[in-house]
Write a structure and sequence with these properties.
The complex is a heterodimer of chains A (998) and B (109). Chain A is of the alpha+beta class. Chain A is 23% helix and 28% strand. Classes of the chains: A alpha+beta (998), B alpha+beta (109).
């Protein structure tokens, strides 16, 4: 059992007791504890259950690499699952829950899976759950859903706030261990603007735990001085609890700062995402110790040797009274020394190497610890906690030589440099045979805009493991990043270490039953036997084997398991490790919160909202809004307890019979001006626009170079040099960009200027038989049919407001669109509402607009078009000039399949029973296609209930449609029934246009 | 996230300020062109593993279109220049030649 030692603990404050709860149980630790150290200190070694087999699990590591000790932290709106207990700092009132168990951590029903483990090998889900088919729905899926996923998803809306932060620096240094500090000192002294970030809550990394002596001082003192020196530099910014999460193109990096996760007081933003642009990025991210693969290496009490050392030295926590150390390298002997110094028993150091020697080995022996060389752990004994280890020869198959009673096992399989940030942007790795580890290949780093490598690995992250070489390497890296000469680096005392012996399986010839209990990936429950099975089944690529076995695919992204896994794969394939290679390292380094990614962009700030000048009036008068691009437009103005449908019908009837007002301000309004404006307009539109007379309007179509219809609208010629182009509400920015692209990149010698004036004008459509009357009542302009005929425009004043009046109609009614300066829109609207009272004026929304245009057979961009429709499909050939040599899209429309007579063409569709056709429904034809699906011959593009005609009306594209008037088509519904509709003219109402021409 | 210098306003732009426009220096084929020419113009693009000429617009800045010479492998940017030209500037081509002997792009080398 783990416990708190009576003395020591460099990071804890024994004067500050901190209460917290774990699964509802009250426990206590000290200020400076992590959740993991506090739980171990309180004797809680069992911390969770594994993902697949629900095996009991304890903490393995002491930092970000921890795979097992995942907790749900917090409650209600502050709850977050899958938090690592090893990086969660303790604070008063912390609430933690373990995961993957039911009904309780101590007794778990899902643990039955472990007895089924030989039936749940790699790829099991792919192989098993296919047959028999009905089992999927009733047996397999409920089973998988019950056991899938790690922690529970939060139920409440996130109560915390988050923010983004931007920084531009010369040098970003990731990692605040001695390497990061040495690099920062070098870069800072050279005058560079430096940002130094450290993911933990303290500086210096693990050097003090390892007893390093730097520049003649204990590491602790050197670190304190270094931090003080850096804090005194104006050009250096230091951040704790801030992790460099990812490195991206051209020196871009994301850093993830946790501001309140360690505090009881949660005021202020919880996380801050730093969006950093750095000239150079120094990765001083250290190294991670690898476990060894032996049977039972996942039983609570088996921990990394470095973690055991950390718990003892940093937090005065003993992982057990008797700890066996098992290793293939000298570093783990430091753990034996630390344990002995803390007064704890080390029954043996089991060393896989035949003849370990050197000062560390000698020191351990002199402390009276037995060193068993050439030996291995055959298996760990125990279930929910370690009770002992069985020892075998490393060279053999696992025949037990002796058993040693113990309650903890400290494991070291060597160290892997943390190369993630180096690799994120394409930095390549090289296999270091001597250290049995991948390290950055300095010749193949990620390059920046200047063509130079912009990531500089430093210290252990660069494969330099001895303290002295860590310091010299990091110092040089810092200076290089700042573009300065290196000068003198800090120095450290050197402790000679013997060579590591690569050990990927323990014992090397372990029998199948041992391999099936030797874990590689703790979080996803992947064992040595799974990877070997994947290799046998042909998953030879490391990327395939990863996906097949799920090795390294959990939230820890295989920080402990990847190298052991690919070494196992390489061995199974009979290849060398570098040939097999690594999987791809992708950001973020450890999971970052979704909240931090969103930052402030949530709720009302999710995206900017565009509001028409009349928006406030709409809000105050019952508008039911809908999004149109970034705009919010009234869908309808509901009265009393009307339904949406009733409200829309009322608005339509009132407009057709009396007077309706529409806020058309969102309509795009783009000025095209210049001596070559007419020439340019002729290229932009399919129509001949250059012949349009000043004072007149013309409906125009705009196509892409492919020939497809992209936008439509009414063009008014303001004077010889100036056109005003109306676009769709959602299309204004796109159309303006389209114009600029052609002007700037193709016809840059044409004298044309464009300006998007959409937001400069309020535009109000005054629609209905009484439209002229209300405008005449406002007074100021002669709007008679003679003075202002259909498709004309005029300027003047209405109710004292300077206005431009267009006589255009999208409803088929007598209609005037009045444009005034945006600031005067509300005054005009209110004047119209007041003057219109005697004519029964009502505002109407976008749905009434849509229905009225459909009644008239007018197309709507985005309904009748979807990027593959040409104007000719829509019966709009009349709007395509035959006289012009060229326009954008003309050549495209001549392509064979666009000029084909077989294309689906626009028609009206009228259901025989008067019902409304389903949106997007297809008309079926005889026979089936190659996939056995019914052939189709048309589809619905717009469909509404028409209050004017009191029946369903629709428009659609139908093969040979215009030639098939009167034919009846069948449109299947989703429920399997069909609805029949007759092909008719798309103009359902007032085909002669008598109503608009008065 | 790339950075490119806008040759008009001089700003070192983040990629998020820019909108991409595909390959630069296309010759437009309109009515009267044959299917092969039109296909070439509309659809067929270079896809080099090396230096490429691209169109970018400083969409959230000055709004101008410009061209960039960028290596698709190393992301090195050799230069940016205004879009109102039919071929890359001679000094830029010279710079690419020097750093990348044997380099080819369409009929440039």
């Amino acid at each position: 059992m783990s416990t708190r030692l009576a003395t020591g603990g460099r990071l804890i404050d024994r004067g500050a007791r901190v209460e917290f709860t774990f699964n509802g149980k009250r426990l206590s630790g000290y200020a400076g504890d992590t959740l993991a150290s506090a739980m171990l200190g309180a004797g809680q070694t069992l911390m969770g259950r594994s993902f697949k087999y629900h095996r009991p699990r304890g903490v393995v590591a002491s930092g970000a690499e921890e795979p097992n000790a995942l907790m749900g932290i917090g409650t209600d709106g502050h709850f977050e699952p899958n938090q690592r207990a090893t990086t969660q700092e303790l604070f008063p009132g912390l609430t933690a829950r373990s995961q993957n168990h039911w009904p309780s951590l101590e007794f778990d029903v899902g643990g039955i899976n472990k007895h089924l483990s030989r039936f749940l090998p790699a790829g099991f889900y792919y192989k098993m759950f296919i047959h028999p088919r009905p089992f999927w729905k009733h047996v397999y899926e409920p089973f998988i859903r019950q056991s899938a996923g790690l922690g529970a998803a939060p139920r409440d809306r996130d109560a915390d706030t988050y923010e983004h932060y931007y920084a531009h620096v010369d040098v970003l240094i990731a990692g605040g261990g001695i390497a990061g500090l040495a690099a920062a000192l070098a870069a800072g002294r050279a005058g560079a603007k430096v940002l130094l970030v450290e993911q933990a809550g303290h500086w210096g990394g693990r050097a003090p735990v390892d007893g390093a002596v730097i520049d003649g001082k204990p590491a602790e003192a050197w670190i304190k001085d270094a931090v003080q020196t850096l804090e005194d530099m104006d050009n250096v910014d230091l951040r704790l609890r801030c992790m460099a999460a990812g490195v991206y193109d051209h020196g871009y990096a994301l850093c993830y700062e946790r501001l309140t996760d360690h505090l009881a007081d949660k005021a202020g933003p919880r996380h801050r995402l730093w969006r950093v642009r750095a000239g150079r990025i120094v990765t001083a991210t250290g190294a991670i110790e690898r476990p060894l693969s032996f049977a039972g290496n996942d039983i609570p009490g088996v921990m990394l040797a470095s973690a055991v050392r950390d718990y003892v030295v940093n937090w005065a926590v003993s992982p057990g009274d008797r700890t066996v150390v098992v290793t293939n390298n000298d570093d783990a002997y430091r753990t034996a020394i630390a344990l002995k110094k803390a007064g704890l028993e080390v029954p043996a150091v089991i060393d896989a190497r035949a003849a370990p020697e050197g000062p560390l080995v000698e020191e351990v022996k002199s402390l009276g610890v037995k060193v068993l060389s050439g030996k291995a752990i055959a298996k760990v004994k125990g279930r929910k906690f370690v009770t002992g280890v069985a020892i075998a020869a490393q060279a053999g198959e696992g025949a037990v030589l002796e058993e040693i009673a113990c309650d903890a096992v400290a494991v070291s399989g060597g160290w892997s440099p943390v190369v993630h940030l180096w690799s994120h942007c394409g930095g390549k790795l090289t296999w270091d045979e001597a250290q049995a580890a991948f390290r950055p290949n300095p010749d193949k780093g990620p390059t920046g805009a200047d063509g130079a490598v912009f990531v500089i690995p430093a210290g252990a992250a660069n494969g330099e493991m001895a303290t002295s070489s860590v310091l010299s390497d990091a110092h040089a890296a810092g200076a290089k990043a700042a573009g300065a000469d290196a000068g003198d680096a800090p120095t450290a005392e050197v402790t000679a270490e013997g060579p590591i012996a690569p050990v990927w399986m323990m014992p090397q010839g372990a029998k199948p039953e041992l391999r099936a209990k030797a874990w590689l990936d703790y979080q996803n429950d992947v064992k040595v036997s799974d990877v070997q099975l994947a290799a046998r089944e042909g998953f030879e690529s490391v990327e395939h084997a990863k996906r097949y076995t799920t090795l390294g695919m959990a939230t820890d992204q295989g920080k402990l398991s990847n190298i052991n896994g690919l070494a196992t794969l390489a061995h199974a394939l009979g290849e060398d490790i570098p040939q097999v290679g690594t999987t791809t390292f992708r950001p973020p380094y450890t999971p970052i919160s979704m909240g931090s990614i969103a930052g402030e962009a949530r709720g009302a700030l999710f995206q900017p909202l565009r509001r028409s000048p009349l928006h406030g009036w709409h809000e105050a008068n019952g508008a039911d809004f809908e999004p149109v691009g970034h705009w919010r437009r009234p869908y309808t103005f509901k009265r009393g307890d009307e339904s949406r449908e009733q409200s829309v019908a009322r608005e339509i009837n009132n407009t057709r019979q009396g007077l309706g007002l529409l806020d058309a301000s969102t309509l795009g309004k783009i000025i095209v001006k210049g001596p070559d404006a007419g020439r340019f307009m002729d290229m932009l539109y399919t129509n001949m626009m250059s012949t349009l007379a000043p004072g007149k309007c013309r409906y125009g179509l705009m196509c892409s170079e492919n020939g497809f219809l992209m936008d439509d609208g009414v063009v008014a010629r303001l004077d010889e040099d100036t056109f005003l182009c109306h676009t769709t509400s959602g299309g204004a920015d796109r159309v303006h960009a389209h114009m600029e692209e052609w002007l700037q990149t193709e016809w840059w010698d044409w004298k044309v200027y464009t300006a998007n004036l959409t937001e400069q004008y309020a535009q109000i459509a005054v629609v209905g038989p009484k439209a002229r009357k209300v405008l005449e009542k406002l007074g100021g302009m002669d709007l008679s049919a003679e003075t202002l005929p259909f498709m004309g425009w005029a300027t003047g004043t209405l109710a004292g407001i300077p206005a431009r009046v267009f006589r255009i109609s999208f409803s088929g009614e007598l209609s005037f669109e009045v444009a005034v300066a945006a600031g005067q829109g509300l005054a005009l609207w209110e004047a119209l509402m007041e003057a219109g009272q005697e004519f029964g004026v009502m505002p109407y929304g976008t749905e009434a607009l849509h229905v009225m245009r459909a009644e008239k057979g007018f197309i709507m961009i985005g309904d009748e078009t979807e990027g593959t429709v040409i104007p000719q499909d829509l019966g709009l050939s009349w709007a395509i000039s035959k006289k012009k040599d060229d326009y954008i899209g003309k050549r495209g429309q001549e392509r064979e399949f666009l000029a084909s007579p077989d294309r689906w063409k626009l028609v009206g569709l009228q259901t025989l029973d008067g019902s409304v056709l389903p949106e997007g429904a297809y008309a079926v034809a005889e026979g089936t296609n190659a996939n056995g699906q019914r052939n189709t011959q048309g589809r619905v593009t717009s469909t509404y209930h028409s209050p004017t005609l009191d029946r369903g009306i629709a428009m659609g594209l139908v093969k040979d449609g215009p030639d098939r008037m009167g034919e009846v088509l069948t449109f299947p519904r989703v429920d399997g029934t069909g609805v029949e509709a007759r092909i008719v003219s798309p103009v359902f109402f007032d085909p002669e246009g008598e109503k608009q021409n008065v | 996230m790339l950075t490119l210098q806008c040759p008009y306003c001089g700003v070192q732009c983040d990629e998020t300020e820019l909108s991409p426009g595909g390959e630069a220096h296309l010759t437009r084929f309109g009515p009267g062109s044959d299917d092969t020419e039109f296909e070439q113009y509309l659809f067929l693009r270079e896809n080099p593993r090396g230096v490429h000429f691209e169109r970018w617009r400083h969409a959230y800045g000055c709004g101008k279109w410009f061209h960039a010479a960028r290596c698709t492998m190393t992301l090195e940017v050799f230069g940016t220049y205004p879009a109102q030209v039919t071929e890359p500037p001679a000094d830029l081509i010279e710079k690419i030649r020097e750093k990348r002997p044997g380099w080819r792009w369409r009929d440039l080398a």
